[in-house]
From TrEMBL:
Pathway in which the depicted protein is active: Carbohydrate biosynthesis; gluconeogenesis
Organism: Enterococcus dispar ATCC 51266
Family: Belongs to the iron-sulfur dependent L-serine dehydratase family.
An example molecular function term from Gene Ontology annotations: metal ion binding
Catalytic reaction(s) noted: L-serine = pyruvate + NH4(+)
UniProt keywords, alphabetically: 4Fe-4S, Gluconeogenesis, Iron, Iron-sulfur, Lyase, Metal-binding
Entry annotated with the keyword Lyase: yes
Boundaries of every ACT domain copy: 151-221
Protein name: L-serine deaminase
Length: 221
């Protein structure tokens, strides 16, 4: 008989969260929070395109409140998650839900397009079960981020030398880069780096934040 392997007890019982579904609620909240981190600030408005299962049940399963809660920086177990739509309205964030009928790479898929002061960011995420997620598209670039490995997400001014400064800090601290994605809005505007490393390195965040022209640094493991 084939043996099932689990990384932790949470792969069996699921994550701590506000219900009712780990895929539709916990995973959705994580997607929203990661996308907020990539954007670097609260958007003025966001278009949320929902596919397949997300499109069919997003209201009944709380996917809508979870995605918006994540965009507000909430975790899946945040006590205010259920009020996220009201809080978003109070914070001046306009949210548009757009269910789509076409097929997607995964039944629990969402594409968010965030807007603020002329800035636009497009990110596609998938909730793959048990609260786990993948980010599969960033500004039109196909990427594959499981967010299950230590990951840095930085937003910085697009100036010469920023990539070298960041990778030098990682090298000095003995952090080995597994994958690295770099994109920018346009020349001289805000740029994004998503860096997966082999071992947990939370202590590097403060060094990265101290760099000139660095706006935000977020770390996930």
């Amino acid at each position: 008989m084939e043996q099932l392997k689990y990384r932790s007890v949470f792969d069996i019982i699921g994550p701590v969260m506000v219900g009712p579904s780990s895929s539709h609620t916990a995973g959705a909240a994580r997607i929203g929070k990661v996308i907020r981190s990539i954007f670097g600030e609260q958007p003025d408005s966001v278009d949320i395109y929902l596919y397949e299962s997300f499109a069919k049940t997003y209201r009944g399963h709380g996917t809508d409140i979870a995605l918006v809660g994540g965009l507000l920086g909430m975790d899946p177990d945040d006590e205010h998650l259920a009020d996220s739509l009201k809080i978003a309205y109070e914070h001046g964030m306009e949210v548009y839900f757009i269910p789509k009928s076409e097929k997607a790479e995964h039944p629990n898929s969402v594409k968010m397009i965030l807007h603020k002061d002329g800035r636009t960011l497009s990110v596609t995420g998938k909730s793959i079960g048990g609260g786990n997620i993948q980010i599969s598209e960033l500004n039109g670039f196909k990427i594959s981020l499981s967010m299950g490995t230590p990951t840095f997400i930085t937003v910085h001014q697009d100036v010469p030398g920023m990539i070298a400064k960041v990778t030098n800090i990682l090298s000095e601290r003995g952090a080995n880069i597994g994958t690295m994605t770099v994109t920018r809005e346009s020349k001289g505007e805000k740029a994004i780096m998503i860096i997966e490393v082999d071992e947990p390195q939370p202590g590097i965040c403060e060094q990265l934040k101290a760099l000139d022209y660095m706006y935000t640094v977020n770390y996930f493991d």
